TrEMBL record:
Keywords: Electron transport, Membrane, Transmembrane, Transmembrane helix, Transport. This is Cytochrome b561 domain-containing protein. PANTHER family: CYTOCHROME B561 AND DOMON DOMAIN-CONTAINING PROTEIN (PTHR23130). Residues 87-219 form the Cytochrome b561 domain. GO terms for cellular component: membrane. The chain crosses the membrane at residues 125-145, 151-175.
Amino acid sequence: MVGSSAMVGWSSGGKGVAKQYYLQGRSPEAVTPDDGRLTLVRNRTVAVSKSGRLYLAFELSTDRPQPYLIYSVGYEGSLPSSSDYTIQMHRDMGSRSFKFASASPSSAGSESGEEGFPAKRWHGLLSMMGWGVLLPMGMMVARYFRRQDPYWFYGHIAVQGLGFLIGIAAVVLGFRLNGDGLKNIVVHKVIGISILSMACLQVRTQHRIFLEFDRVSLD
């Protein structure tokens, strides 16, 4: 969204406030208020807060409107200050294509403004598959297939190793998302790093057992 203009609305003291921002970069300092490339019709912008919901409306004057609308929502309690109107990184977003000729929206786009599967869902899916599915499956192989010696051990190592690699991919993607400006994820990050640390210790232990198992098999 860098290089785009955005209309931002919020409630302050029970009254709605709306301003145009220009997104020069990803940091809050690079998002400047009362700036942008949208040609707004004067006195046609309004933000209304009612029943816990905020409604933002504005009129745009343009001959060639863009076919996509991007919506985003910020974190609770992180409203722009009245001094410089600096805004923080949004916590979630979505997109929708819009046919201005017929004034009708088409099917909703993906979250985070990305085509296909968004990064946050990839992070969750990889974490679930790596830490929540494959690692427990590897432990079950070691527990219930001992009679299939020595194949149970190699199956255990293969499943656990695959789960560890997928978990590593989830962690890398998580740090990338954190670098993009996601807020209020300290507890989530601590839990993720703790799981990664324990998984590394487990893999190290498995490596030593694997070497010992291989040596005994050769003997």
